[in-house]
Amino acid sequence: MIEKVTLAFFGGFLYASLVSFADTLAERTYYLWFSRERKKITSKWKKLFEGRSRCEHCHGYIKAIYLIPILGYFLSRARCRHCQWPIPIRHVVMEGVFFFYGAWLFATSQNHISQLIFALALPSLAIIWLTDRLFFLIPDLALLYLLFLGILDFSLRGDVFAMDHKKLLTLRATLDLSASIFWFLLFHLIRLLSGKKLGYADATLTLALSLLLGFSRALLLPTLAALLAILNYFLKHTGKKENRRIPFAPYLIMSTFFLKMVPERLLLKFFS
Description:
The chain is an all-alpha fold. It is 67% helix and 0% strand.
């Protein structure tokens, strides 16, 4: 019991820390490559990863102790220690949500390596969410990094390189790969039939997320994302032509977060 609680706490702390880093990385990506000042900025890659965290108001450096997820917010009394500017509450709320999210994943899953890999995907997911929502653009490097993690997770989870009864792939690996490739090819077909209104990056993103999820969850991924997109469209539709374009990546990512929480045994029982 103690070991399970400790593991859940570790998962929660890991997810809260990485989502805080992901939020910072997404903001820096926007500033360095999409803001009005982007052409004046040099050494962008160095500033993306090496810059220390600063206050959003006075740009003063934040001490490491105040960067501890959730706890740092209360240690600083919810204010910048330099200028006393109130720290937006969204930071601690997001960290709290992902703390419980990570704790749930580690407590309910037996494949902790898969949950660790998904945690490492948070920075890439945050960047893709932000850029596609604002500019209908998915950065290539963020997408390639996510695809790499998907292939890594698939390889470890599916036991791809193990010889089982003289077969290269186990049944699980075959199903995982089949579901991912199916959606990838279907999205390309839809892209061609729609006159390339659906982006190539959306198809690749679906492939990467499907590999991270596994076949049982991947089967529901595009359907759930489409339902969320349609629901949001009708809730916010104003009738103006310029509002009819929908960024699909945020809905794919949102669906991925939800499906990761669903125990796989329930999905397998449902499909059976």
